[in-house]
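Assemble and predict.
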Amino acid sequence: MNDVVKIIFKRLGLGLVTLLVISVIIFSAVEMLPGDIAQAVLGQGATKENVAAMREQLGLDRPAVVRYFEWLGNAVTGDFGHSLVSQKQVSSAISERFANTLFLALYAAVIAVPVAILLGVLTALWRNTPFDRVANVATLTSISSPEFFLGYILILFLSVKTGYFPSLAKINAEMGFFEKLERMFLPALTMVLVVVAHMMRMTRSAIINLLASPYIEMARLKGVPGWRIITHHALPNAWAPIINVIALNLAYLVTGVVLVEVVFVFPGIGQMLVDSVTKRDFPVVQACCLIFAATFILLNLAADVGAILTNPRLRHPK
Amino acid sequence: MNYFVIGYYTLLIGASCLAAYYQARTAFLLLFSLTLGSFIMGIIGGEPALWFVTVSAGVIALAAGTSYAFREFLVIILPDEMSRNVKGAPLTASFGLFVVMTYAIAGLFAPVIAPFGEAEVISTAFAPADAQMLLGADQLGRDMFSRIIYGARNSVGLALLATAIAFFFGAVAGLIAATKGGWFDQAMGRVVDVVMSIPSIIFALLLLSIFGTSTTTLVIVIGVIYSPRVFRLSRAVAGNIVVMDYIEAAKLRGEGTWYLIRKEILPNSTAPLIAEFGLEFSFVFLLVAGLSFLGLGIQPPTADWGSMVRENATLVSFGEITPLIPAGAIALLTVAVNFIVDWMLYRSSGLKE
Amino acid sequence: MSDTENSDKRELLLEIQDLRIEGYADDKWVEIVHGVNLELHRGEILGLIGESGAGKSTIGLAAMGYTRDGCRISGGSIDFEGMDLTTANQDELASLRGAKIAYVAQSAAASFNPAHRLIDQHTEAPVQYRIKKRLESQEDAMELYHRLRLPNPKEIGFRYPHQVSGGQLQRAMTAMAMACRPDLIIFDEPTTALDVTTQIEVLAAIRDIVDQFNTAAIYITHDLAVVAQMADKIKVMLRGEEVEEAETIKMLEDPEEDYTKSLWSVRSYKRRQKYRPQGDAVPVVSVQNIDAAYGDVKVLENVSFDIHAGMTVAVVGESGSGKSTAARCITGLLPPTAGRILFNGEALPSSYKARSRDQLRQAQMIYQMADTALNPKVRISEIIGRPAHFYRGLRGAKLKKRVDELLDLIELEPRDFYNRYPTELSGGQKQRIGIARALAANPSFIICDEVTSALDQLVAEGILKLLDRLQKEFNLAYMFITHDLATVRSIADEVVVMKEGRIVEQGPKDEMFTPPHHPYTDLLLSSVPEMDPEWLTTVLEERGVDNIGEAALKKQ
């Protein structure tokens, strides 16, 4: 087990370093603004006094390195400073919205993961049948469509024309759990459509790769029945690719949510990011980007660790 | 019961029986499962559901027919070797080729085809379709059809340019890294890992918030975000080639890096690289469309599909499909490119075995 | 092996008649096995032999009623104990496999499921068929492991496949095939992936156990000497068709068909041995005390040998012995960490990047896999012409003349091959193009890295003869890397034996092949199968079962 622990720690360390580098990128991107933040936010027409006051307020007179570590230190403790537009605490505004986004992603994942894996395994088993061909065309179409296209189609047919579901996913903290679920159904479904297509294709190719390996042929030649080949010979070796598929798509769910949130006017962190980009509210942009990147890296990390833990070669060292 | 429903089931069951009689297994399975599915859909959705099935089947049949005819057309007009390749192509691929060709013509000859200019206000806001305006007017009273045609030029052109830039830098760096190895390879690998661990749309939003949303910055930002992806792929493709003995033989002969890339590696990696170009293009195209939809991409009054969706989005709540047309145009092109790429990847993997 | 003469009286077990199998290629079905007949009695061992593409494995699998993806049985019948396997349904077939007919695959490492312990995979079939209870079957597995002379038979089954060595895995797989005491086992090249010293051990184990349980077997291989040890009768295959079938002794001594005769005669090619020039002639290449390492792993230690002009030095060793690494040091791909390499008495820079164009030109290389050694997207004229242009600046008509000359040298018609691509050529032709590319540089020294091991025997012999002729014509020095001692016998002048990165022994060939040997050389030499059907029996008697294979290696 010692080896596994070592490999996992190495991978965790690498993830941490990547996150640090990304925080540098996010911070220094804002430093690259023509002029500086104060000038950029207030515009050309601002008086010198106003600009100077803002500089004072943001502490721009100090060197960038000092401000970076201050920013990072605060960010680690959950303090992202104040919004330039509303002057409110960034973290308090973000936390509720981030929870909403995670809820939406989870909602979509709970539907998508089982469906996608089941369909992926089925298409792999029935490969080159009409079922597989139709699934191939359908998933390619779904992957190729922009999220807003799928979103508006769902709104048109499931909301406006038929009235089954609400078209806008406006939720707030007072709503009950099931009411939230109902209101969020269409955005969740949009994401499910895209993610299921991705996951299904990845699962299919992973399983097909696996079924081509000599030990599956050996099992067949030993007279092992079909269902047992899947459960006993294929599945124990399929965990690594399947975990990988799930984690990658969860990462997509959390970050790909931006467009869906805008279509359905969902109060999530993605929409907040878009709003602050338009308003050039840099502290909020930085905070959102850092959170998205951290989630993304964390999920990729989870995929790698999962793959390491399920690898029999590593679990039973020589 | 009315004549439509009776005719509908008669046709399906009759066709199933014929397929069964002639032992066309696949066709029979498809037809009969459609029949069974129609029973359920008919009960739940009533006649409209059956109409929906009929129309969808008609559209699919039309697309299949067009693809079939287009493939035969290509087989006849193309030179010998290429026509043999096209002959074995699935219908989806020839459908893709047909769509791409149509878009290319629309984009190249936009001013000739479009009846009005892209920024020309000719009517009232959201005016309905008439003889002059095939698809009606948009929120400012501009001709929707003309703007869609011009969009083929603007949206696709921008995505193509950005992809080309990303591809050029990514592929060159990837090929050099694979050939030279050593510290350059290592360093590039690390940089690419970091850049790729930021989700692309988030990275794009961050950079656009800082550098503004002019067309030039858009192209550069997308180039920066996507070249690492191209780098990783071309590094992997070339990585499989540089371990070959013929590369070792050329190195031991004393050949330079440039010769190795040009004469030994590139000829063997064109197929996967072209497929990758198609794939990257559809990613870039979707990203640009997404950014435009968020109002951060191509700026008005230039006609662009992504922003057209956003500007006309309110119409959806009135049950109009107008905003879906530019969105569909985006989806159709990406689907088409993906169909072609799928075919190319299948071919290059099939030839290896 | 016993009482072959009685085989006709024994009960017929498997009868294949006019078997035809098709493979799917380029959107159509092509016949790959053209009507093969086969009879096998209880306890009989049939050797199925042929070159690659002969359809041996396909027939072997078909004997279990199994075809790989993209293949189908298109005609004929396979009768096993009264059941026709071509018409049986999947359930009936599944109930035969493992229980009545078992399979031993070429690569044991890939054919054991990495997620389960050996013994759990062993007991799977018996428990499935309710032949034995799990514990009973485990006991039996240990007994079989013991009989197959696996170390720690009580414990080894509880390990995972990646924790066990290749030769042991192959024996564990044979034990697994025996688990239900089948009537027939298909051995599909079970020792091809193993080194010779390991192979002998596995061969001995397989032969014993098949004998003990009186199991019938189909033994598929391309190695004549191996099949001579194992089989009662031999069937020779060529491109999906049967050439001839006879009992082992008759087949070896008196084959009828020309093709079979040509296979047998390959082994008799021998070249006159040359000796070093007298006096203090300067060797073309002199490797002096080199060490080399991949990262922190040391792979070569204190390696020295000389190669003189016009002579062939064979470097022999099993996988991991460092013979190819030595070649990489000479070419400069892997700069040695210590020692030096002299070329005509002058020290070479250690990395190829620092060598002059002329130094690079002098030493050329021919590779094992002609497929990967020639760029598939470059024409033959360019492949051969490039070195001539690169080193000597030839162009236009002069270059064309030179390419024609080189194609003539390697016995290929220039007009036919000038504009073709490597993918259009056969394996032997590709290897000839590789030789022409090396010659185009006018070298004085050529490294031949296992140049014949990927080729069928007849073709390989042609290549060896060509290399020999070229050596005489241009006074070339060859470094011949190989694991095949038969090749060494036929063409080497001097032999260097390597093991685990060190040189064990070196000297002129005649001395090396006469005793007394170094113990490792002795083990290596005695492990190479010979055509004599009694060879394995004799070696086992002489050395004893505990003095072969891994056991013997450990003692050293």
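The longest helix of chain B spans residues 25-77.
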